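So, who can interpret the following?
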Amino acid sequence: MQGASSILGSTATDDLFARRPDHEPPEFDITAMVDLVFMMNIYFLVTFVAATGALNLPTADHVVPLDADKAVVFTVVRSLDGQAVTVYLGDSEKGEALPAGADQDERIQAAVEQGVASGKTEVLLKAEKKVRLADLFRVASAATVEGTKLHVAVTEKDTK
């Protein structure tokens, strides 16, 4: 038995759903889009530079400099191997090095308490940029004494 379409010939539905020969996939020319993105970058760059030049930032109202005479100063320096830190009592490595170990936290707390007894009300931790946060937190916890304010500063190590 032959199919109905072969007997009757081609129908209108055959023309609607006729197979088209395979063509190459379409190609998109993105040159115009690259040009547009480049022009947008230039626009945003120019408007950003113009906007930052016109900024009028207010001065800080709630910041006061730390008086070094009223502060106990600790300097935290990372060791050469990067595994431990050295804590100095005083400004930079000129101060007294507190030995690492279990009693280091007790010596830090004793130094702060001695400073409080002599009228110092603030503690300044000067930490090198490469000191790990866990080490700085340990030193800060040991340096926390009731009635004192804790200040933390990050310093760059001199390359000289």
Observations:
- The longest strand covers residues 71-78.
- Residues 68-155 form one domain.
- The radius of gyration is 36 Å.
